[in-house]
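Input chain follows. Return structure tokens only.
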Amino acid sequence: MNKINLLPWRDDLLIQKRTAFRNVLFLSALMGLSIVSALHTVIKTKQSHQLNINQTIRNESLRLDKQIIELAHLISHKQKLISEIELIRNLQLTRKQIVKLLSELPSLLPNGIYLTQLSQTNDEIIFEGKTESNQQVSLFMQAIANSETLQSPTLQVIKIPEKITEAVPLNDFILTATLKIINRDSTDALE
């Protein structure tokens, strides 16, 4: 009888299976590496895209901060201009009134009163001067009350000087009065 040796056939089959396993293992490793590489590329791309978005946001934030600073500067400049315009408007509206007050002032002053200083704070006029008697200050206050440009006279101080050098002693006084409010909408005030 013939002797059949099955061992080499089994060895060949085992070698084929090992080769096939190695090939599948190699292909699996290659496929795994390609999947990891593809995932790595996708993640890097997304990360790069997100970094670009973040940088764009930072740049826009800086640009907006600069614009906010410029806007704040413009707002403060606008407020300054508005206050200057309001001041000029008030000066324009009251210029005739001040001229009228200065032309009316000599007729308001009774004899025996001498003004040493005249000042204005907003709508308040402050008269400082000297008088021979308190009655003349009362006459001056009545004249102010009946005036076309002044109202509400208030006597602040009246005092006798400490050193009397004149033949007739003059008392010092401080009197305040308020300018009468003119119609701010009147076009006549702007002329």
